[in-house]
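This part of the workshop introduces the protein records we will be handling. A record pairs a protein's sequence with a compact description of its fold. Comparing a sequence with its tokens is the quickest way to learn the format. To make this concrete, we reproduce a full record directly below:
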Amino acid sequence: MFGVERCMFASNHPVDGVKASWDWIFCQFKYVTAGLSWEDRRLLFAENALKFYRIELSTGLRGVK
């Protein structure tokens, strides 16, 4: 409905750990986005949160895959 530029992933970690490990939850995020482009996945997993929360990273970290 909104598109990837207006969405981001979140969890209720560590409370989610009662039902599933962080590794399992993160793998599910990756699974449901497997058909998306690398740029769309990057928006959902990082870039949108960085913009929304106004977080600035050093330039060296932006290229990390």
